[in-house]
Each structure stands twice: as C-alpha cells, then as structure tokens.
Amino acid sequence: MSKIIYTKTDEAPALATLSFLPIVEAFTKTAGVEVETSDISVAARILAEFPEYLTEEQRVPDNLAELGRLTQDPNTNIIKLPNISASVQQLKAAIKELQSKGYAIPNFPEDPQTDEEKELRKRYGKSLGSSVNPVLREGNSDRRAPKAVKNYARKHPHSMGEWKQWSSTHVSHMHGGDFYDGEQSMTLDKARTVRMELLLDDGTQKVLKPKIALLDKEVIDLMVMSKKALLEFYEREMEDCREAGILFSLHVKATMMKVSHPIVFGHAVRIYYKEAFEKHGAFFDELGINVNNGMADLYDKISTLPASKREEIERDLHACQEHRPRLAMVDSSKGITNFHSPSDVIVDASMPAMIRSGGKMWGADGKMYDCKAVMPESTFARIYQEMINFCKWHGNFDPKTMGTVPNVGLMAQKAEEYGSHDKTFESSDAGIARIVDIDTDEVLLEKRVEKGDIWRMCQVKDEPIQDWVKLAVRRARESDTPVIFWLDPYRPHENELIKKVRTYLKDHDTTGLHIEIMSQVRAMRYTLERVARGLDTISATGNILRDYLTDLFPILELGTSAKMLSVVPLMKGGGLFETGAGGSAPKHVQQLTEENHLRWDSLGEFLALTVSLEHLANNDNNAKAQILADTLDTATEKLLLNDKSPSRKTGELDNRGSHFYLAMYWAEELAAQDKDSELKAQFTPFAQKLKENEAAIVKELNQAQGKPVDIKGYYYADEELAKKAMRPSALFNETLASL
Ligand SMILES: NC(=O)C1=CN([C@@H]2O[C@H](COP(=O)(O)OP(=O)(O)OC[C@H]3O[C@@H](n4cnc5c(N)ncnc54)[C@H](OP(=O)(O)O)[C@@H]3O)[C@@H](O)[C@H]2O)C=CC1
Ligand SMILES: O=C(O)CCC(=O)C(=O)O
Ligand SMILES: [Mg+2]
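Above: inputs. Below: predicted complex with 2-oxoglutaric acid.
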C-alpha cells in the first residue's frame, strides 16, 4: 500500500488541515493510498521532549525524530505544512497553555543557574526557532510558481505600491567587522575530526565544541561579527535615520539564525534605549530581563513592579525615543514596534512586503513612511538595495507582465549558515577563535575575536553540492530556462563553491543550456532586467538566498509565497513536499476565533499533494495515483480560474469553502476522465451529488461565519472543537462520507 505522511503543524495551516485532510483521505483511498498524520506542532514537540513529567495517557511519540529517520528511506513521501519556529515568548506561551491543560511540564528556565536548569534549558532549546525544517530537509530545494498560478496572477494582479524615484527608503548594512568581512573558508583535503576552541590571550585553551566529524571535500568557514563594529554601526545608522526623518526597521532571521540573530537584535534595542539601559541595566539583569528576546520581555517583567518604579522606567525609555528615529511598527493599533520580538519581523517576508508596498512601512500613527531597512550582516543585504535601486529607476514591477524567478537552493544536510547554530558562540573573552584538527593538531582556520564578538563555523558537504548542481541542470533542461548561480567570487566560501560548480557541471550534458555564475548583485540586476521584460530566470543559490528569494519573487509576482510549489527531492530517493514557501500567518487564527472566517489559502497544499501523488505513482507504479494527480492539477487550475480561492472578508467564501470547490472540481475531473473506469464509476455519482448540493453547502459554510468561535487553545487547541469549527457543513460532511 502506498503511503503519504501528512504533517499536522500549527496556527492557520493546522486549522486548514482539519478541513482539507478528510477530503484528501476520501479521494486517495480510491487509489489505495493511505494517509498517515504526524503531529509536529510546537506543543507536540514539547510534550515529546518531557515524557517523564506526563501520565501514560498524556505521552506522545517523538514524531519529528521518526520523520527525520524516514527521510533516509527511499519510500518516504511526506507532505510538510508550515510550522511555527518559536521565539522564547511563543515557547513560554505554549508551555503555559499546556500546563493549564494539566500537562505538568516544567517551567522554561529563563536564566538557568543550576545544572538541572541548564539541562532543562537545553531540552527546551530543541523546540526553539527553526527546529523542524532542518531535520526534514535532507535534500535540496526546488521552488517555483506553477504555470497555472503564474497565469492566474497575470490575469488577476494583486495590488502593488508605487515606487517614487525620490523615495528615501534604503538598506543599511555593515561595511566592516561583520561576518562577511575577513571570512575564511577551505575545502577539506580528507575526512577530519575537528574541535572549535578559543585560545585566550593568557594562553588558556577553552574548548567550545570538542568534536565535529567532517567529510572529505566538505567546505568549512569561519566567520566573526565584531560587537564593537556592530554597536558603532547601530549608533551611526540610528542617527542617520533620525536626521533623514524616516522609520528605522531592523530585519533579521532570528528563527533560523537562532543563536546569532537574537544577539544582533538585542544590541540594537540596547543602543536605541542606551541611556535607559545605562541607568537601569543592573536592575534589568536582576529582573532577568533579556531584550535579545525583544522589548516584550522587558514590558512583561516590569509589569509587576510597583507603579512608581515602573513609571520611572517607562519615562526613561520614552526619553530615549525622543532623540532616536521613529520605529517601524508591526501593529500600530496595539503599539507593537519592530523591537517587540526578534521574530515579529522576519527578513525573508518583511523585506518583500516593504518593497511590494513601494518602500513603505507602518508608522505609529497608522500611516506608511519611507524607511531605513537595517540588516547588519552585509553578505546578502546588498541584493535588496539592488532591487530597490531598480524599483526607484524602473518603478514597481507589474504582476501582469513580469517574468518568473524559480529557485534551486543548496539546502541539504544543514548547509551553510542555516546549519550553524550549534557551532555559533558569543565570545566570553578575547582570544583566537580556532578550528583545529584533533588528530594532527593542525589549525585549519583561525581568527581574532574580542569579548562579545559572535563567531561561528559553517559547513556544506560535497554530496549536497553535487546534487544541487544536478538539480539546477535538470530544472534548466525541463523548463528551458537560463540558470544563474548567485555566487560571489570575493567571498571565500562562495569562491570554494564556484570551483565545485565548475567541476560538477562537467558531469552533465549542458549543451544548449544557458548557465552562468554571477556575484549576487550582478545576478540580481541581470535577473531584474529580464523580469521587467517578462523573461524567466532560475536562481541557483545557497541556503540563505534560497530562503530570501523564494519569498521575494513570489510576493512580488503572486502576492504571497503561499502559492509556490516547493519540492525537496530527498537525496536518498524519497520526497518531501512543502506546502508553499511562506509561514503560518498567525493573524489568520485571530480572524477565525473572532469571526469564524479563515482566510488562509491552501493552494500550496493542493500543489504539494499533486506532486506527492505523482511521486507515489512513479515510485509504486500506481496508475490510479497518477490519475488523481493529473485531475487534481486540472481541478486546481479550475479553482483559480473560477475564483474560488478564500476571500479576506468574513461572510464570503473562506478556506473551507475553497476546499469544497476543490473537492467538487476534482471529483468532476475524475468523473470526466476515461483512463480508469473504476475511478470514473466511483466519482461520477459523487460529483453529481456535490454539484446538486453546491448552493446548499456553500450557504452552510458561509452562514457559520460572523460570530466568535472558541477552540479552547492556540498551541494545543481542543481537537474536537477545532474539527467541528472547520467542518461546519453537515451536508458536505455526509456527502464526503458517502464516497
Ligand atoms: N516553512 C515553514 O515552516 C515556515 C514557517 N514560518 C513560520 O511562520 C510564522 C509566521 O511567519 P511570517 O513570516 O510572520 O508570516 P507568514 O508568511 O505566515 O504571513 C505573512 C502574510 O502573508 C500572507 N500569507 C501567508 N501565507 C498565506 C496563505 N497560505 N494564505 C493567505 N495569505 C497568506 C498573509 O497576509 P495577509 O495578512 O495579507 O492575509 C500573512 O499575514 C513564524 O513562526 C515563522 O517562523 C515562516 C516561513 C516558512
Ligand atoms: O524554518 C523556518 O523557520 C522558516 C523556513 C523558511 O522561511 C523557508 O524555508 O523559506
Ligand atoms: Mg522563507
């Protein structure tokens, strides 16, 4: 029996699953495909970590570890929905909710002192930040807008803000002392075992990571971010921003760069509120305030102080704002600024949203203003400035005519920066940061660090690079589109990759293909010149640009990256099918609980299911699965053309209504096909029933809206209540059960 593993995650995607999965199960069983669910929500991952605190009935298996193992099995077929990459605030909220539901898990130790607390912190750390995707992504990334989706966007363009040539919006990044500056890189000449250590100025050796096994031909890098240079940078840019009278916004990726970026974020907050931190810093420490987790942590912890003390602190914070630039807002109606939480503004999505709106972000008064987009690490920040330059000169892009930019991303086996958090350190002392071969004592890479500097080692294995080059060539051939490898010869790491790309391209027949290697800024310009002329260009990039570009171009081309096809061909032969390239849209949940309307668009799920079924069909020689895939593809196109995607407005068709239409169109396509008479016979009466009841079902679905709905929880909602809320049409449920 063929099997698809369907993940259960968090927030809007998890709610959508409750409505969509029964449809998937009903349809796929007709092709002998079993659908198994696997709960990898942040709540389930927390529970799996602490079985000894739970009763027998409360315990849950470690599904993520099991899925990680399955990525090594060629028969694996996983549909992975977007999940929360939790900030400390979110993790604490999830813990609190679980405790309130009777799960006696321990509190999150904010400032661990004892060994026991340190151990707990380490265990909770496993559920922090991006901890699902890196486990499952045992393959490289293939993300693109399918033709039907692109055509739909061309016919129904989303709104775009206007770019003025005189816009003051720009990107600011460090020009020295950051990870890019003086980075060191090497390709290994043999398999080695190394340690990471700090050689202090007094000669003491401090081992931070005792043993890392590296493979032959692996590329490793050593990078340092100077605290001094970072603080000077912030000071200068804040002053520059205040003078310019525009909004200050900081864009980081604290979810994936879960060790370095909260530190980078915290320094910005402390510089902005410098005088207040000088005055109250020691007291803040006593209270256990850590603004690396955002100002939310500070406001939370001072909320219980006596009013006079609290007001004094608030006054002092306010006084700092008087001579600092205005901050970009995340939610101006609630007074939530860019400094509230390091993962409220996530660079991959936040920069495209700003560019789409003509370079504007929200100010505290609810109006939009030009901004200084601050991205301290210069390595990739420059691509955004290049795009802004282009928009200022050319005007914003036109979704009706613009070309498309699919991406082939190097991602497998925790490639590059995104796999480096367990090898990232905030230096406790000055000294030499070194990577040393344990067996030979050779110092492979070394760099001077001062106290407070952040240093890290990144790695990328050779086999994933070979696989990435192969995938890029395959995509170029299949789509007859030029491929540009975005690699910067001035950057030592990428220079190593350039050598490898040149070597491995020779393994493939590239006759007639257009393949080039360009530095990022040139690649961006080249790609944009083509985009503006309606031409398509594949970007073949490293892991960070994979993440950035697969939100950037889709958000401009399609309005959201949720509509992307996102495939991870696992290196061992299985398939991981991600549902779009975007997140979990937390504010959609709020709309559901307040108004019982879910505007989440499951298009990414429809696309993922199509390719997942196709993969099954090929692997298991399952002809029925292929028919299901082909008909689902046509049904999805029909859904788009007939405008049955969810509306943003309560009372109109929402996520559940769009699922009904998908089911109806899919059934109609299965009834219309003549390749499999059994399927035809099964689906003909079913399609008829859905068609006959269309008006009544849509009425039931839409009439349920407009009033609050309580699903008793956010991270671990009551499954039965949530199911009931997500399946409000008795008529549709009955009809589906009859299949
Ligand atoms: N692959 C994964 O697992 C990923 C997970 N994440 C996680 O998701 C969370 C939120 O991420 P964030 O970057 O803030 O934002 P999201 O990508 O979730 O949402 C940003 C905005 O995009 C629109 N949007 C996104 N997806 C859809 C959809 N399917 N249907 C309709 N509109 C959509 C919504 O716009 P509007 O408000 O206009 O409706 C939404 O407010 C974080 O925890 C993050 O770590 C993020 C990226 C990928
Ligand atoms: O894992 C995460 O935190 C986000 C993933 C993401 O943004 C992406 O893969 O595009
Ligand atoms: Mg992303």
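The CA atoms of residues 403 and 534 lie 4 Å apart.
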